[in-house]
Amino acid sequence: MTTVFDLSLLAYEPPGWGKLLLVGFMRSIQLAAGGYLLGILIGIAGAAGKLYGNKVVRDLFEIYTVVIRAVPELVLMLLFYYVGTDLLSRASTAMGFGSVDIDGLTAGILVIGLVQGGYATEVFRGAILAVPRGQTEAAHAFGMSPAQVLRRVTLPAMTPHALPGMANLWMIATKDTALLAVIGFSELTLVTRQAAGATQHYIMFFLAAGVLYLALTLISNVALRRFERYARRGLVSTR
Amino acid sequence: MANVPAIEIRDLHKQFGSLKVLKGISLTACQGDIVAIIGGSGSGKSTLLRCINLLERPTSGEIAIQGEPYRMKDARHGGLEIADRRQVQRIRAHLGMVFQNFNLWPHRTVLENVIEVPIHVLGMKRDEAIHRAEELLNRVGLGSKKDIYPAVMSGGQQQRAAIARVLAVDPLAMLFDEPTSALDPELVGEVLSVIRDLAAEHRTMLLVTHEMAFARDVATHVVFLREGIIEEQGPPDQIFGDPRSPHLKQFISSVA
C-alpha cells in the first residue's frame, strides 16, 4: 500500500522530515569542519614535533600516530567518547567543579579531531620533507626566528604537497561523522535512520541522505580545487 | 668604527663527524674589502662561508661581525652551539647571503621575495619596502618582472633577484656562495656584471667562486683554501700572477 517514494515525507515542515534531515546535515558539517580544523592543528604540531622535537616529543607523537592509525576508527570513537567524558567528569568532580556534561558536538569534534590529527601529522610531515632545504635555509640566513620560518616559509611551501592528502582527509572527516550515530549524536545518519524507521521508507530516506553527502563532497571538490590552484601559485605545472 | 673589521674569524675549526673540513682558519675582512675564496672541491670554502652566518656551527674558534663575537657555548656532545638565538638572528639580518641555487621562495613573487625580510625581520613599513624593492629590481634589470614567480624566470634572472633580496637589507657584508655555479654558461655574465657593479661601490663581500678571471678582476684580497687551511693569500695580482705554493700553481693552471 505504501509506495517506495513518497516525496511529501521529505517536505521541510512536519509531517515532512526535511527540516530534521537538514538540521542533522548541518550538524554533520559542523562536526566534520570542527574535527578537520582540530586535526590540522594537531597535525601541524605533530609534524613539527616529529621533525624538530627532542626524543621524548618524537616518541610521544610516534605512539600517537601508530595507535590512531592502527585501531579502527569506530573503536577509537567509542573509546574516546566514553572514556574521555568519564575521565573529564571525574577530573572535574575531583577538582570540585562538580560533574560536567560535555555536549555531543564538542565531544564529537574532539573525537574526530584526534583521529584526523594522527593522519594529518603524517601528511604534513611528508609535505614538510618535500620542501627543498634551501628555502628554509635562506629564511634562517636572513635572521628569521624559527617560528617565522615555519609560518612564512615552511607552511606555505609545504601546502601544495599536503593538499592531496588533506583533501582525502576532509572527505574522510565528512563521512566519519556518520560513525557518531553510534554514540547517539543526532547527525545526518542517525536522523535518517529515525525518519526511515518511523515511516518505513528506508530506501527513500537513505537515498536522500546519500544525495546530501554526495552534494557536500561535490561542493568541497570545487572549493579544494580552487584552493589548490592558489596554493600551487609559483609552482611550475608538471603536466 | 672604521677600524673595526666587518668580519673577523679566529682559529675556526669545523668537523662533520670524524671528517675535519676546516682546520684553523683565521681571516679578517675590513669595510669595503672584497675577499675571493678559491680552492678545489672539498677544500672547505663553502663551509667557511656558511660558518660566518652560522648556517654551519663551528666546532671551535671565534667569529665576530662588526666587532661583535657570536655568543656560543659548549655543546653536550662536543663542538659549539648557539647561546643566544636572538643575537644570531639580529646579526644574520645584516649579512646577506647569495646561494648557489638562488633559494628564492617559490610561493612569493619576485617583489614579495625582496620585501619579505625588510618587512618581517627589519620591521620596515610596507610602502617603503616596496618602494626600495622596486628601485633595486630596476637596478638589477628586473623591474618588469616584479610580479611574476621565480620558477618561470631563467637562472640568471633568479640569481639577480636573489641579489636584490640581499641588497634590500642593506647588508654590512654580502656572502656569495658560488653564485654562478648553477647557471648555464650564457647566463653567467649577467650575474657577474651585477656583482661587479656592487664591487665598484666598495661593498664588503666574501665571494666563493670558480670564476678565476672575475676574482682577479674584482677582488681586493684572494684566499686559497686547501684541505681546510689557508694555504696562500694575498692581493689578486700576486696570487694569480706569482703563486708560491705548488698546489696553488697547479690549481690555477688546472682551472685556467
From TrEMBL, chain A:
InterPro entries: AA_ABC_transptr_permease_3TM, ABC_transp_permease_HisMQ, MetI-like, MetI-like_sf. Its main location: membrane. Keywords: Amino-acid transport, Cell inner membrane, Cell membrane, Membrane, Transmembrane, Transmembrane helix, Transport. It comes from Vreelandella titanicae BH1. Belongs to the binding-protein-dependent transport system permease family. HisMQ subfamily. Coiled coil: none annotated. Residues 25-224 form the ABC transmembrane type-1 domain. GO terms for biological process: amino acid transport. The keyword Transmembrane helix applies. GO terms for molecular function: transmembrane transporter activity. It is a multi-pass membrane protein. The lineage of its organism: Bacteria, Pseudomonadati, Pseudomonadota, Gammaproteobacteria, Oceanospirillales. It is found in: Cell inner membrane; Cell membrane. This is Binding-protein-dependent transport systems inner membrane component. The chain crosses the membrane at residues 20-48, 60-83, 95-115, 178-196, 202-224. GO terms for cellular component: ATP-binding cassette (ABC) transporter complex. Gene3D superfamilies: MetI-like (1.10.3720.10).
